[in-house]
């Protein structure tokens, strides 16, 4: 149980009834661990020396006392340093809470038995108590043996009852580990039976015992640790230490009178480098303690029961940690928490466009996307949280949880959001969390505070969960409605209201230009559209760039068919959004924009155009296209355009009064910069005419 370390220190990392000698120091432990979690350590030695006691990683509420005095800074998975002196008695309290554990890596085992052979989101569960994993073995079942027919472990389901109400059982035999528990199991056909489960450690002893070892004439016994789950109401789903409820500000995780929003959970990513808020509800006047890493913060609930604490700025960490929130006897804990970069994605169908459509990536005409990305995705440092349209509706069966970006959860997640996260991780090497809240077919208005049902149900409940910034991909519905005059004002309201809600006036807000589409050939919005309607809408989008800390991804090259409203190039959208963040938020030396028109000068009948983000090139080596000029008659005609000294020289009419570029719904121009990014469409008048 102990070992002598450097400089005379002693390390204790196992807990068994024992008495050992380490050099001249004796260490004696009194415990029945892991049946119960109290460990008393007596040390017999002279003088004083450092003694390190390791706290098991699974134990989120461990307590350590020296001579009855509790120590602070107890962190799961870490050593507690104690300056031992003669006569000190050390007591560990390792609460072992019974709970259901969902198989996090289930989707990664689609080709491996015994888990499954066909991938699905219906993952199995195991019953766990501290370090003890429980097994369901039909040899211990006292009911009708026909209930557990051959192969039952492939079809039976645990009924995911609240573990706090499970009936404990004594150990199954002499010198075996207890306690056991009675669980409910749903058999094929819907029959539910009660069966005992015992620690898996007992299996070996049981079958080695001649009295229990099956012989050739005995039945064939089977056991299972992992079984798929059915909640107590009969719906397939998960289990939690608490319950899910709705509130005026969205769904919460509740234990007793303590509640926190569902945006907090196992597997979440916390934003690094800023004070991170944690908030919720408790009994009015109750003291609430939040422990994470080495931090322990306290707050007192106000007269309405609201409380909030602010964690000090955190350092990025890919090492899973636990967050523990407690108020009186009520406690909520979250496991496998990382610290890194967090971004919120919003918009309509092109942001919602999920990874399950990845087969379209491989058919893209302008370069195929990553092949088999769904099968290859396996980075535990990228986490995703999908906010569905029913996020704030009552019901326990609505998925509201953080997941690793892999398997079934990734299949339903935003492709643009995932590829953004993948690029950020590749460049920064820190955990990345992405929250997606997008609704197909939605206009911008429902995401605004005054009239927005999505703002109230899908945005407000997430704030002020600390984020680095926002990613927005929306506009097609508003373009169908010919919203080419007021959309810029709505974008301004969106950006400012979200920043205000999060209390971050400088939070980055990056958005995506809607892609070329034949709006003029469509009856969408029940309104007529001209070939330049979309270009006018682009100009409305571009006006948002006057707001500080914003950026726009140009998409004129990211479409194969002008009749496809949902082009497949979401990996490139994610890449270009990531370039904005890498260059502007993270200080990376990357070009994050294509050429942007700055100013013009008229030289005779020629117009000299200046661009920021230069290094101008023709992408295909052909003459520049989609430039137009107008004379005094105001009629635009195709123009000749050439690159000279990193400027574009345009000619085509005498005494030009206006010039424009890419000003058409079908425009896919070839003006780029050397970074491979397309130029932003524009229109400009000469001398104010």
Blueprint of the fold:
Elements: E1 2-4, E2 10-12, E3 18-22, E4 25-31, E5 38-44, E6 48-54, E7 63-66, E8 69-70, E9 79-85, E10 89-93, E11 98-102, E12 124-129, E13 132-137, E14 157-160, E15 168-169, E16 180-186, E17 192-199, H1 202-208, E18 223-224, E19 227-231, E20 243-245, E21 252-255, E22 258-261, E23 269-271, E24 276-281, E25 287-292, E26 295-300, E27 306-311, E28 317-327, E29 330-347, H2 349-352, H3 373-376, E30 379-386, E31 402-405, H4 407-411, H5 415-428, E32 432-438, H6 453-459, E33 469-473, H7 476-480, H8 487-502, E34 508-512, H9 533-543, E35 550-553, H10 570-584, E36 596-603, E37 606-612, E38 616-618, E39 627-630, E40 636-638, E41 640-644, E42 647-651, E43 658-661, E44 671-673, E45 682-685
Parallel strand pairs: 2-6, 14-19, 23-29, 29-32, 29-33, 30-32, 33-34, 34-35
Antiparallel strand pairs: 1-2, 3-4, 4-5, 5-10, 6-9, 7-8, 7-10, 11-12, 12-13, 12-19, 13-17, 13-18, 14-16, 15-16, 16-17, 20-21, 21-22, 24-27, 25-26, 25-28, 28-29, 30-31, 36-37, 37-42, 38-44, 39-40, 39-43, 41-42, 43-45
Helix pairs in contact: 5-10, 8-9
